[in-house]
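user: Kindly work through both lines:
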Amino acid sequence: MILAKLVFECFEDTTMTKVETAINGLITELKYNGQIIGQEFPTLLKDGYFITQVLCPEEESLAFTNHNQAVKKAVERLTDVGVLQPKITVLGQELHSDSTDPHHTPSWQILYTSYIQTCSPIRCGDHFAPIPLYRLPALANGCYKQLINWQQDWQACDQLQMNGRTNEFESLAQLGTIDSRLGQQSRQLCQRIEAQSGVPTYYYLYRVGGESLTKEQQRRCPSCDGDWAVLESIHQVLDFKCDDCRLVSNLSWDYK
């Protein structure tokens, strides 16, 4: 991931409310287009400039060629309230986040996230690196809002089960079963992404607990009851993969 700075300058008299609304509108659309990542985008006013720091998948994420129509309209609204298009400064590589997948067509991809990750929820199956969403066909209304909202839901459940204080087992059921509401939504998303991208898209089923290592290794695909254990762990994370059902999972973290 790349840290960048957006500097907004007013070219005519305006109001703080108009400027804040326009900047927030642009930041929101950039987020839903996958050009910036995360939930918090601090903005400060210094020496007459509005400065926002953002996290991007790659150095060229904020290039005009990656804008969708909603982002372009948000840029136009800046002009309407007397604000120039932002000047973009790339600050450098963010040290604590995953590196973005290189430009290529993956042979398969995975819908995967966790509560500690700040990156795209689509990972390349070949490299297990996050793929910027704007490289994919848009899901609806020209953006990826549904996918980003899905990621927030998944991460919220993951946070609850990791904390182990409130709704732990209910959250685990959402993350680890295909017939939960989240599981059903996840597989539907995968089907839509695969249909639009042409790339096989798998859903990651989280696994923890289990009776023993032996029984874990004998787990069957929860959808077709087929043998889905792989001979060698994929990216040291995935130990099960069903190509027919587009599902992957890990050996219970209790036994890895």
